[in-house]
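User: Design a sequence. Structure:
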């Protein structure tokens, strides 16, 4: 197992700001929300967070706190608390 690969995320040709790990993408059942691991920084090791995007509005609707290491979406991105 190697290091995660991060890159741009484009939805219907529109690039979403940020740097995301492709293997982490998790769609909601209805396909409107997308959870992903976002790279926040990488000094000695990665700092990541899980973000939830509304794919119709192209907006960030939720995020976990950034933490050192890999934050991975696990289930039901519909239940992520809204941003403060």
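Assistant: Done.
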């Amino acid at each position: 197992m190697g290091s995660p690969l991060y890159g741009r995320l484009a939805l219907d040709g529109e690039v979403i700001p940020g740097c995301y790990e492709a293997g982490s993408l998790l769609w909601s059942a209805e396909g409107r929300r997308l959870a992903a691991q976002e790279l926040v920084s990488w000094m000695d090791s990665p700092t990541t967070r899980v973000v939830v995007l509304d794919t119709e509005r192209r907006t960030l609707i939720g995020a976990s706190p950034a933490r050192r290491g890999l934050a991975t979406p696990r289930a039901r991105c519909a239940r992520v608390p809204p941003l403060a």
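Residues 6-75 form one domain. The CA atoms of residues 25 and 62 lie 15 Å apart.
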